[in-house]
Amino acid sequence: MVSAVVAHLLLFLISVNLIPTTPIVEERPFQAIDGGLGVAVGKSRKRVFPVPHTQEPNPISEAYGYCNTPNRTEQAWEGHSPADYKLLSVQVMIRHGDRYPLYSIPKTKRPAIDCSLSISRRPSHPLLNSFINHMGQGGRGHWESPLVSVPRLPSHSVCEMGELTQTGVVQHLRNGQLLHQAYKRHNLLPADWSPRQLWVETTGKSRTLQSGLAFLYGFHPDFDWRKLTVRHQWSTLFCGSACDCPARNRYLEEEQKRQYRLRVADTELERTYADMARTLGLLTRQLRAANPIDSLLCHLCHGLSFPCVPMGDSGAGGCLTMAQFAVIRRQQLDDEVDRRRVGLYRKYAILAMYPYLNRTAAKMERVAKSSEAGRQPRAGSEEVFTLSSAHDVTMAPLLSALGLEEARFPRFAARVVFELWKSPPATQGQLKKRAGKVDKSKTKDGELFIRVLYNGEDVTFHTTFCRSHDRHAGQPLCPLKNFLSFVRKDMFSVVNATSYQGACYRRPG
């Protein structure tokens, strides 16, 4: 229920930029967006944090960034650390790839898109054919109910509503391949990996299941199905058995009201909806209910002309325009500014994502404990790679809960990565030498650190729990203890509480 409400609530966050220097780069062939609606694009960093804006963001260019068309140079800062640091585990959340609209605009033709997979259709990928073949062996895998009945590949020549497109599959083959390159030198998931070392989970939608499988195949081609269990998350918040939280729902309702008040006060938006409805011969309320931005974004991302209807006696007829689309997008960007100012969504996000973040922290602690000096290692005993295939209504509150309020709203095939690192063992002599003393050495176990990356860029020092950390004071990474303290207690200060249960069940007022 929460996911359905939030899906109407959000579409985009305003963008901001970080500027890395030497990430892993995947070259993508130049490809123009045709259809008369786009501009040709070549290399792009797709930055997730901006320099301060000197002018209003362009709604159209923002929308193209959301499409994430796989025709650009991709980069990744995943897998980077100081010398001799050991990568212990990686947890990834992805948003599904490009999909067909969830809504159709009344009286217009649906976008003509083929959702079957073909290596001869663009965009394609070198792994696409072997991926298709490998999915045919999926019966060897283990599937939590109800995933066993969900198709492993998109297959309709006329897309169904919400179906993953070939573009979406290619986006995640690229994502997985990019992380394969980033982590291969760390031997994160060895060739003889055990079933316990890999955790894959998804909601029950075909677009998330298929996106997760495409990502996994790019990351670990020809993986052994017999070792794989795909787990089902019934909630888009990935909250497991801790989903009940009345206060979270109240904050969401208040946020909805804020958004509604801002929208109805926007006279330009109301005029635009009325003009669009008049063109199509609809009542304005009918057009709003059809959520036209969803379908228009699909047209834009696939280079298709916007919908038209023939001229009629009533005066209706004509085509929807890019100018109208830009007004709706502009209002969404305005809404994000107001959303941050008011702060209700942040409160919702903290309570919505605590269960997922707590599970993330617990996994890190287990892996860290198993790596302690003197402990007898058990091969394949802990999860070293976790993949959660989710939705925008999962990732958007995750970003907000982490304090990444300025981050660009999750585009198609967005990814958030949590890395757990351990520094090399230090000696007491080394430690005292740093403090200006000299002593005979004794070995001390390495320290633990966390990195958080969004779409390949390191955003760790933009998070609430590490924003104030002095990365130049002998610790270039963020201490894991900062994250653990944030998840277990500090994050609840936003809602004037000290625990999840206390925050969820406190009486309002």
TrEMBL record:
The keyword Plastid does not apply. PROSITE patterns: HIS_ACID_PHOSPHAT_1. Residues 1-18 form the signal peptide. Gene3D superfamilies: Phosphoglycerate mutase-like. GO terms for biological process: chondroitin sulfate proteoglycan biosynthetic process; glycosaminoglycan biosynthetic process. InterPro entries: Acid_Pase_AS, His_Pase_clade-2, His_PPase_superfam, Histidine_acid_phosphatase. GO terms for cellular component: Golgi apparatus. Pfam families: His_Phos_2. It comes from the Eukaryota. It catalyses: 3-O-[beta-D-GlcA-(1->3)-beta-D-Gal-(1->3)-beta-D-Gal-(1->4)-beta-D-2-O-P-Xyl]-L-seryl-[protein] + H2O = 3-O-(beta-D-GlcA-(1->3)-beta-D-Gal-(1->3)-beta-D-Gal-(1->4)-beta-D-Xyl)-L-seryl-[protein] + phosphate. One of its GO terms (molecular function) is phosphatase activity. Keywords: Hydrolase, Signal. Belongs to the histidine acid phosphatase family. This is 2-phosphoxylose phosphatase 1. It comes from Seriola lalandi dorsalis.
